[in-house]
Write the structure tokens for this entry.
Amino acid sequence: MGLRRIMVRTAFISVAIGAFVTAANGQRELTLPKAKPKTHELQSKDGKSINVEILAVTANDAKVRRGSKEFRVPMAKFSDKSQAYLKKWGQENISYSFDVESAHRLLSSGGGVHHYGYEVEIESRVSVDLKDVKIKYQVYNTVNEMRKGDHRIGVWYARRDITFKTTAGSRTKDKILWRWDGTFGSKGRIGNHLGGIWLRIYHKGKMVHEHKRLGSKVRGARWEG
């Protein structure tokens, strides 16, 4: 009897090892059952209930899934309690996505001094309004100087663009006067004097996005906050 038990156990181990070997060879894979999606019970204005998986929430509607079908339901269709829950869910499950572009711009000139700087445009792809946003940036020139600044946004509305200009220095025809009083650069040869920009987007104190426009001074630079 003892020998028979040993033989059965040995056969079971051999089968298990064989299954893993065939998976490793690409002939067959062992898959675990998928976890069931977490559903939530929501109510409509007329008191009807439905269990759905919440996918996304905006100020105007909620994207939900029931079974294999997805729907967008206007927020006004839900009860006040469900609306409050969905808004809270949306703030706790934000999918951050931004598209950042920065370009050299002449902001002002006079008295033989030309003020250039970075104009930054950021497209928000976030589906909810963001409160308490701060954009911190570091701009660089090619004479090993760096200037820090920030741009604050009280409410950044969903899927809206924002544009702002950085602080920087100034340039005369003869030499660079890196006065940090506006913007910097040189007329006609901006790229030779701008060393790049590095910015970070913070939402309620948490960094949610980072952007670098690479220049000669941004590479290898250290973030100084």
